[in-house]
């Protein structure tokens, strides 16, 4: 059976503010082997739920097979089209990036300390596809949005990965937001339609409801992070225009590989 516990409950959460940068450290580096396995299973189940959201019969089939049932052949073939990016034959860097994006996704959804989450966009079908990595819209008075750049870090220099994310997001934000706007502004909700229709202008004008976000999945858990972020997004004018999320779990490479194994194990 697929576990129903919250992924967020396994991590230690701490909040930090530094010169108009508000960031959250979600630390799982002290998890024992059993807890780390449970987090991997929860994240794998979340991935399947997200990927098969439009094909719930296939999601239900995956759950059945995890529980010991067998696939109908066409179900297996169809599901491989949805979940193929997690196959062991796929480049390791690509799979780790996907796991990092989905870790951001589930933690953003389950973060009860943040304002109400109205909608969340991402992860992409392919981690290396062009475009924004993620977008959240929350209600804090009115609607506010955060455009996210999401990275995984498996080396020794965390700061270089974060600095690269700053540059990528600041240089491409308008294009990313234009892509979100083009696909999302046609909605039955007039308030949401107005927001998505003006994402680019709001970002360029530094509107108070436009935020930048950097998320990193890593094996490290530093006490200080994102300290230079404001320098890269100085045109944003909100009270907390820069957001960070550092999700740390021991041996992230091994963890990401295990998540992919669980997603793919029945296929």
Strand elements, count: 7
- Contiguous uncertain segments of 5+ residues: none
User: Mean pLDDT, as a whole number?
Assistant: 93
Compute the number of helices: 9
What overall geometry do the principal axes of the alpha carbons give?
globular
Helix content: 40-55%
Whole-number count of domains: 1
Beta-strand level of the residues, as a percent range? 15-25%
Distance between the termini: 16 Å
Series of secondary-structure elements, N-terminal to C-terminal: EEHHHHEEEHHHEHEH
Largest beta sheet: strand ordering: 1-2-7-6-5-4-3
Which radius of gyration do the C-alpha atoms yield?
18 Å
Characterise the protein shown here.
By secondary structure, this protein is an alpha/beta fold. It has one domain (7-264). It has nine helices and seven strands, in the order ββααααβββαααβαβα. Strands 1-2-7-6-5-4-3 form a seven-stranded mixed sheet. The radius of gyration is 18 Å and the shape is globular. It starts with 11 loop residues before the first strand and ends with a helix.
Give a quick rundown of the structure:
With 267 residues, the protein is an alpha/beta fold. 45% of the residues lie in helices and 21% in strands. It has nine helices and seven strands.
Give the topology.
Layout: E1 12-18, E2 21-28, H1 33-51, H2 56-66, H3 73-83, H4 92-110, E3 116-121, E4 134-140, E5 142-152, H5 158-184, H6 190-197, H7 199-205, E6 210-218, H8 229-232, E7 242-249, H9 252-264
């Amino acid at each position: 059976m697929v576990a129903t516990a919250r992924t967020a409950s396994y991590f230690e959460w701490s909040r930090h503010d530094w010169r108009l940068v508000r960031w959250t450290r979600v630390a799982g580096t002290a998890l024992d082997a059993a807890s780390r396995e449970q987090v991997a299973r929860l994240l794998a189940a979340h991935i399947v739920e997200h990927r098969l959201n439009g094909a719930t019969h296939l999601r239900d089939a995956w759950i059945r097979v995890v529980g010991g049932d067998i696939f109908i052949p066409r179900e297996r073939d169809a599901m491989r089209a949805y979940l193929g990016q997690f196959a062991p034959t796929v480049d390791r860097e690509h799979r780790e990036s996907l796991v990092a994006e989905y870790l951001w996704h589930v933690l953003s959804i389950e973060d009860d300390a943040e304002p109400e989450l109205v909608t969340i966009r991402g992860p992409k079908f392919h981690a290396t596809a062009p475009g924004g990595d993620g977008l959240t819209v929350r209600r804090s008075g009115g609607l506010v949005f955060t455009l996210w750049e999401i990275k995984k870090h498996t080396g020794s220099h965390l700061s270089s990965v974060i600095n690269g994310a700053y540059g990528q997001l600041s240089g491409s934000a308008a294009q990313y937001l234009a892509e979100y706007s083009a696909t999302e502004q046609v909605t039955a909700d007039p308030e949401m339609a107005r927001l998505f229709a003006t994402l680019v202008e709001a970002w360029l004008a530094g509107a108070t409801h436009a935020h930048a976000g950097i998320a990193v999945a890593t094996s490290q858990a530093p006490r200080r992070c994102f300290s230079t972020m404001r320098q890269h997004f100085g045109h944003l004018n909100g009270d907390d225009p820069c957001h960070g999320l550092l999700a740390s779990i021991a041996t992230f490479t091994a963890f990401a590989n295990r998540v992919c194994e669980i997603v793919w194990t029945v296929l």
